[in-house]
């Protein structure tokens, strides 16, 4: 079944803007679609397409869009309908759907991984024995759409399909592979991955991992703890049943252990004072770019610049290594035994080169500290804030930030609280990123990072 690229480009222009993972919502861009591969023809054709978006300022982004082509409308896929068009012969109508949501065809990825297939320049790499692959298991796309699209096979494995793609090995695959090879306890095993070769370069398309079936994510656990505290107006955080501090402590230990594994797998370096100044310059540039998009940042901008410049003035070396890059409570899962860290892709807004650069491990600590702040604050921003709940929220945040840092310090030679200026600047840099993220994706959450930036600016 053949369809025209121009027609696919036309339907994707409308459809992309409605997808959570599409980062170009706030800018006008033209869409060009190209077909990369046909994964299978049976029972319905599955084609991997790339949408190349060119924005008005010349920036280009690439998105992966796996499509299933059906010759009849499929009611069960109405919610992931992409568009309809005549086939190239002009004889019959083809109905396009997001293939990752079509249980009838998702097994094609597993079959290709089992066979270690090479299809139209796509290489399917298997890291475990064929009988460890969840072949035949039904698939379910996760409903919480995030930066990418993940589908679970049975309760055995989860396949993450990267949406915004670019040349280079995706750090999620690279790091999961390296840490699994080291026997790291705090990551899910990497079962396989899919890479395309485009113009001689590797482009990571998807990865398959063990699925942690009984795990609960850190965001759910932390926000439940906050809710318990808010419900008990007169009790303090350490007196309420759902206290999270011992989990925060373990999470700090787990983060430090993952950092030690990352250092062992990829090495370490010291950023010289000049390197540090260059990083600070990048943070200032990021702040300037954010100010154009989020006007609400203006009142804190000069204090934030002063905070960043204090880091440049430290004049000391800063230990650096590979890091997670976007660590927050939604990226950690609590299994019955331990915390698992997920999603080593780094911040989706950064290029792969930036995401693979060695950085201060405090970047991850700062990310998690921001997340405690989010967990405590977002319920207040939903309109229920009183002086009492504000105080409780601050208490919860302080207690869990301290417990996390103490846990980290126990497993590492460095206590994050000793690098206070750098840690504060990294928190601010993260909150600036979050302000842009929220303005683009969840404007009602924008007050959460803004409130923190006011606090950081005033300290
Ligand atoms: N190995 C896993 N086991 C269980 N759940 C997982 C696993 N990997 C991811 N998840 C779930 O899928 C969600 C999205 O995964 P993540 O890697 O963070 O994707 P994204 O890059 O789209 O944010 C996570 O928040 C988690 O709930
Ligand atoms: O999709 P990803 O998980 O890669 O990360 C992006 O989305 C996150 C929200 O889902 C966003 O995280 C922010 O909100 C979280 C609560 O929903 C909070 O725990 C985080 O601390 C906060 O940064 C993340 O920044 C973004 O990259």
Automatic annotation (TrEMBL):
The keyword Transmembrane helix belongs to this UniProt entry's keyword annotation: no
List UniProt keywords, sorted A-Z. Answer: ATP-binding, Carbohydrate metabolism, Glycogen biosynthesis, Glycogen metabolism, Kinase, Nucleotide-binding, Transferase
Q: What InterPro entries does the record tag this protein with? A: Kinase-like_dom_sf (IPR011009), Mak_N_cap (IPR040999)
The protein's matches in Gene3D superfamilies, at most eight in alphabetical order, are given as: 3.90.1200.10
Catalysis performed (reactions) = D-maltose + ATP = alpha-maltose 1-phosphate + ADP + H(+)
Any idea which GO molecular function terms this record carries? ATP binding; kinase activity
According to UniProt, this protein's pathway is: Glycan biosynthesis; glycogen biosynthesis
Q: Which residues form the Maltokinase N-terminal cap domain?
A: 15-102
Documented EC number(s):
2.7.1.175
Q: Name one GO biological process term.
A: glycogen biosynthetic process
Its domain of life reads Bacteria
Going by the record, the broad EC class of this enzyme is: transferase
Q: How does it assemble?
A: Monomer.
Family the UniProt entry places it in: Belongs to the aminoglycoside phosphotransferase family.
What this protein is called in its record is Maltokinase
Origin species, per record, is: Antricoccus suffuscus
């Amino acid at each position: 079944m053949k369809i025209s690229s121009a027609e696919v480009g036309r339907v994707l222009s409308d459809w992309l803007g409605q997808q959570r993972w599409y980062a170009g919502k706030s800018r006008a861009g033209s869409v060009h679609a190209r077909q990369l591969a046909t994964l299978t023809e049976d029972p319905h054709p599955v084609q991997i397409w790339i949408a190349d978006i060119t924005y008005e300022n010349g920036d280009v982004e690439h998105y992966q869009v796996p499509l299933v082509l059906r010759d009849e409308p499929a009611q069960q896929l109405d919610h992931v309908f992409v568009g309809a068009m005549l086939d190239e012969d002009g004889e019959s109508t083809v109905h396009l759907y997001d293939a990752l949501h079509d249980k009838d065809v998702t097994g094609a990825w597993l079959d290709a991984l089992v066979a270690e297939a090479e299809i139209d320049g796509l290489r399917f790499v298997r890291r475990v024995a064929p009988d460890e692959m969840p072949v035949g298991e039904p698939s379910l796309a996760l409903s919480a759409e995030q930066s990418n699209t993940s589908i679970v096979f049975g309760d055995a494995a989860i396949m993450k399909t990267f949406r915004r793609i670019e040349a280079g090995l995706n750090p999620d695959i690279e790091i999961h592979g390296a840490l699994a090879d080291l026997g790291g306890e705090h990551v899910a095993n990497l079962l396989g991955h899919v890479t395309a070769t485009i113009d001689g370069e590797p482009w990571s398309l998807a990865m398959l991992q063990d699925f942690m079936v009984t795990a609960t994510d850190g965001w759910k656990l932390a926000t439940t703890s906050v809710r318990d505290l808010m419900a008990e107006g007169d009790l303090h955080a350490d007196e309420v049943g759902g206290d999270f501090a011992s989990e925060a402590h373990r999470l700090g230990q787990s983060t430090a252990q993952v950092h030690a594994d990352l250092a062992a797998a990829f090495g370490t370096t010291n950023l010289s004072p000049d390197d540090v100044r260059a990083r600070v310059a990048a943070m200032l540039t990021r702040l300037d770019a954010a100010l154009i998009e989020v006007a609400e940042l203006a009142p804190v901008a000069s204090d934030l610049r002063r905070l960043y410049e204090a880091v440049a003035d430290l004049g000391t070396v800063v230990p650096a290594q590979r890091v997670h890059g976007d660590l927050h409570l939604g990226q950690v899962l609590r299994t019955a035994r331990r915390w698992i860290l997920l999603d080593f892709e780094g911040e989706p807004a950064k290029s792969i080169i930036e995401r693979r650069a060695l950085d201060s491990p405090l970047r991850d600590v700062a990310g998690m500290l921001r997340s405690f702040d989010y967990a405590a604050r977002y319920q207040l921003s939903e309109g229920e804030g009183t002086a009492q709940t504000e105080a409780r929220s601050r208490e919860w945040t302080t207690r869990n930030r301290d417990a996390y840092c103490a846990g980290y310090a126990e497993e590492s030679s460095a206590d994050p609280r000793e690098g206070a200026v750098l840690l504060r600047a990294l928190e601010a840099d993260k909150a600036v990123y979050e302000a842009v993220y929220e303005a683009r994706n969840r404007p009602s959450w924008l007050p959460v990072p803004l409130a923190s930036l006011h606090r950081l600016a005033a300290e």
